[in-house]
Amino acid sequence: MFLSCLELWRTYWECISRPYTVFICSLTAGLYYLRGRKCQTPVLVSSKAFGAFLHKHCPVVAEHFSPTPWCWGGRFQTLVCALLKSRPPVVYRNELIRTVDGGQISLDWMDNEASATYPESSTRPTVLILPGLTGNSQQSYVLHAIRQATHRGYRCVVFNNRGVGGEELLTPVTYCAANTSDLERVVQHVKGLYPHAPVLGAGVSLGGMLLLNYLARKRTETGMVAGITISVPWDAQKSSKSMEEPLNWLLFNKHLTNGLCRAVTRHRKVLEKVVDIDYVLKARTIREFDERFTTLLFGYKSCTDYYRDASPDRKLSNTAVPILCLNAEDDPFSPRNAFPLTIVRELPNVALLLTAHGGHIAFLQGLFPRGEGYIERLFGQFVQAVFEHPKEIRKACGIKEQKMR
After folding, report:
1. Are 126 and 197 in contact (CB under 8 A)?
2. SS3 string of the chain?
3. How far apart are CA 50 and CA 394, in angstroms?
4. CA distance linking residue 135 with residue 125, whole number of Å
5. Residue 403 above 80 pLDDT?
6. pLDDT, averaged across the chain
7. pLDDT attached to residue 20
8. Out of 110, 189, 193, 240, which could bridge 156 as a Cys pair, Cβ 3.0 to 4.6 Å?
9. What gap in Å lies between CA 39 and CA 48, rounded to an integer?
């Protein structure tokens, strides 16, 4: 499906690149763009104090958000971003660490040894990035996040889930949004290497679910000073229902399910000890995959139980660090009726930033949205605000000093 979309995009691009259409297309898009700038204002749901901090140090939260004029709708934004977004070059240092059960986790480091702002490695702030469902350190959104962080002098490390990114699966255990044991192992490892360096967690989509579940379960013992999530699905049941709508299934669900099945096939020899692989590979939706694989692997009685445990919405009140969450109201992966607005309004440490448009991990702006966009500006500003103004953000969120350690 994505290959056919790519071919369609290439045909479209060749058409509009002809000299006699460039001017007309550019003029038309420009008029729509200028008109759209006046009607898109993100909504920031937060406490008064946290909101004031964000307006002061993250001015992007108050900017008008105008999506790319020729790229309308959340589905189109999501597709175009996957096909068009640039991929900044990043050279990683890979590290493999073992888990208690004999498993293996792959970490990709961007140490940023050339940092002029933080020349001492022992105190250089660290951004821990958690990719999405089938993602790894090579995703464009990860590469852009690293570019934003390293430009400001910080270190980055990407937590690749077990068996993802070409790494071998050593035990019949993979990953899910509800199981935070591997993330806890990674945080302990990172803090063990750099005990005096603050750590900020950044989770995208399923990675955001995992991060929020971790922060809620560890409460004041997270090892992190703050968290940021992009396009997190707040309620797994509602997200699953949205993704099973016919068009969403065709454009996204089918593709992601196939990716999950390919991963299972790759690790068949290890996983066939605990699940019926042939039955799993017949899954046609993410829900069916979770019913046949994830639920069994992690000991849930049903997929409903797993989705309830994986959903981070009602756990937010247990978190104890500043958290900024970005969602779009037209995100096909995370429907607006799942946004925990009432819960967030009652919490001093959580802010939910909502845009009317943006899709899933897209938020494309400008006529040719290949480079830095809304996500990147928000991410860069928030990370810098957290690391450079630690006392101010703690005060704004009503957090005592010991809770940030």
Report:
1. yes
2. CHHHHHHHHHHHHHHHCCHHHHHHHHHHHHHHHHHHCCCCCCEEECCHHHHHHHHHHCHHHHCCCCECCCCCCHHHHHHHHHHHCCCCCCCCEEEEEECCCCCEEEEEEECCCCCCCCCCHHHCCEEEEECCCCCCCCCHHHHHHHHHHHHCCCEEEEEECCCCCCCCCCCCCCCCCCCCHHHHHHHHHHHHHCCCCCEEEEEECHHHHHHHHHHHHHCCCCCCCEEEEECCCCCHHHHHHHHCCHHHHHHHHHHHHHHHHHHHHHCHHHHCCCCCHHHHCCCCCHHHHHHHHHHHHCCCCCHHHHHHHHCCHHHHHHCCCCEEEEEECCCCCCCHHHCCHHHHHCCCCEEEEEECCCCCCCCCECCCCCCCCHHHHHHHHHHHHHHHCHHHHHHHCCCCHHHHC
3. 9
4. 24
5. no
6. 90
7. 37
8. 110
9. 24
- Rounded Cα distance between 398 and 346, Å, is 13
Of the candidates 173, 239, 181, which has an alpha carbon nearest to the alpha carbon of residue 206?
Answer: 239
Would you state the structure tokens that stand for residue 129, as one six-digit string? Answer: 């990035």
Q: Any idea of the CA torsion for 374, 380, 385, 390, to the nearest 10 degrees?
A: 130
Closest to 209 in 3D by CA, of 247, 187, 190, 183: 183
Q: What is the pLDDT of residues 44-61, one digit of tens each?
A: 999 999 999 999 999 999
Which residues carry out catalysis?
Answer: 205, 331, 360
Query: How many whole angstroms from its chain centre is CA 322?
Result: 17
pLDDT in tens, 92-140: 999 999 999 999 999 999 999 999 999 999 999 999 999 999 999 999 9
Angle between helices 19-36 and 2-16 (to 10 degrees): 110
Tokens of 175: 């990953």
- Sheet of strand 155-160, all strands in order from the earlier edge strand to the far edge: 43-45, 350-355, 323-328, 226-230, 199-204, 126-130, 155-160, 104-110, 93-98
Instruction: Give this prediction's pTM.
Output: 0.90
Nearest Cα neighbor of 127 from 400, 393, 382, 340 is 382
Question: What Å distances lie between residue 139 and 11, 76, 146, 205, 209, CA to CA?
Answer: 25, 19, 11, 13, 18
